[in-house]
Structures are given as structure tokens and as C-alpha cells.
Amino acid sequence: MSALFASLLRSSVLAAGALAAALLLPAAARAELITWTFTAHVTTGFGNLGGTPVDSLMGAPMTAVVRFEYPWPDAVPNSVTGEYHYTNPPYSFTIQIGDLLLPGPPEFRIGVTNDWPTVEFEDALVIYRAVSTPFPGVPGLFVDGFEVGLYDISGDAFESDALFTEPLPFDVFDADGVYIAVNGCTAQWLAEGFCLAHDFALAGRLETWTVPEPGAGAPAALLALAGVAARRHRSVPRGRAR
Fold first, then answer.
1. CA distance 194 to 187
2. Percentage of the chain surpassing pLDDT 70?
3. Residue-by-residue DSSP string for 177-199
4. Cα separation of 168 and 158, whole Å?
């Protein structure tokens, strides 16, 4: 057998072994596209959307869908704040209010805060836009606030600032600290891509947090309804990466 042939054969065997090893790796070690879906109903708001009073949207269903990759690098490498930045496509973050679909911003972020030393909150998961975007169908109006937030003042919700994939029960967060919110302004208030004041706002308390079952085409609700899961599971690390 020639030295060249032996070398090629050895390289092929090594490559095949590496491929087999990669295929045998646990799913958590490989990149996954994760979808989270949040639902709520509009319960509060002010202002108008191009002449349409926000009051007309009271009670309308709200749905936020975020698609992100896991694992993903933390842009703020410390033990308190995890910042995971995504540019779509292929990742996306959209909010629908009734029949009105608000397209996602060109960049969004997932923030995981663990034991933040403030009086407002200690732990939080916030999915939010990075830049303001035009409001569809309403010239001169911009969407500024565009987020899903879950806050816990006790500091018990998370044990680290690591990104994770599984929805958590709402009772590990504050009852009034889970929401979908959208707000914005007219061009006169826009400065450096952000609103200095807001002309409209809509918000609703989160009701469900779902994720598709592996291999399923439609999302299946997990135990993320408010008050469903009891705090007896406190001994299990929450918000940890798989």
C-alpha cells in the first residue's frame, strides 16, 4: 500500500469517526432553533394608532413569537447579566395584536438577569427590540417598546444568567411582572432611533408560554399557565441551560 493511499485512508477513517462522534453528541451540545410563543390579552393602553383609539383594542388577543438559536454566545460575560443578540433572518421576534401583525425589528435581544442588586427586581427575562421600526400602515408612527418581560423581585427564578430553552411556570415570577408590551411615538419624538416620549402604548399580562414538542408541527402548551405549578419545585434549578 502506498504511503499516499495509506494517508488518505487514515484521513477518511478519522473523518468518518469525527462525523460519527458528532452525530452521537447529546442534542443539547448541538445548535437548536428554539421557538417560544407567549399569549396575553390587551388590558391597558393609551393613545391612538393613526387615528384609531387604542381603547378599541382593549381585550384583543396578543401573541408574541420568538425564534432563536441555542446555545448562543453571551455578549455580556459576567455572572449577573446575560445578553443574547440576534439579527433576523433567520431568527425572528414578532407580536400580533388582534389581526394586526407587527413585524419583528432587524435586531432583538434576550436578556437574562440573575440577582441584579436593585429594589425593583433581582431576576428577569426580557425579550426586546434593539431599534425602533416604522409602524405598519401608519406613516410617521414608530414602534419603540416591543418586548416580553418576566420579572422576579425575590431573586429565586434563576440560578445563573445562562440562556435556556424550557418555559418556566409563571408562579416563579411576580404576578404583575409578566407581560407583552408595545409602545411607540410619532416622528417628532424620535431621536437617535428611540422615542423621547410615547404617543401610544398597549400591554397585557402573560397567560401562556409554549414551545413546540420535539417533532411536532404545532406548539403544545406546557405547565406555564399562571398558578399551575407550585413552588414545591424550588429545589430544582430554574432557568438553567440544558
1. 10
2. 76
3. SEEEEEEEEEGGGEETTEESS-S
4. 10
Q: What is the DSSP string of 45-113?
A: EEEEETTEEGGGGTT-EEEEEEEEEES---SS-SSSEEEEEEETTTSEEEEEETTEEEPPPSEEEEEEE
Cell representation of residue 203:
400591554
Q: Per the omega criterion (within 30 degrees of 0), is the bond before 90 cis?
A: yes
Grid coordinates belonging to 74: 453571551
Range 102-106 average pLDDT: 81
Residue 20 predicted with pLDDT over 50 = no
Question: What pLDDT, in 10s, does the model give residues 159-212?
Answer: 999 999 999 999 999 999 999 999 999 999 998 878 999 999 999 999 999 998
Altogether, the residues listed in the chain come to a count of: 242
Enter the C-alpha cell of residue 179: 407581560
Written as one string, the DSSP assignment of 130-184 is SS-EEPTT-TTEEEEEEEEEEEESSS-S-SSS----S---GGGS-TTSEEEEEEE
Contact between 160 and 142 under an 8 Å Cβ cutoff? The reply is: no
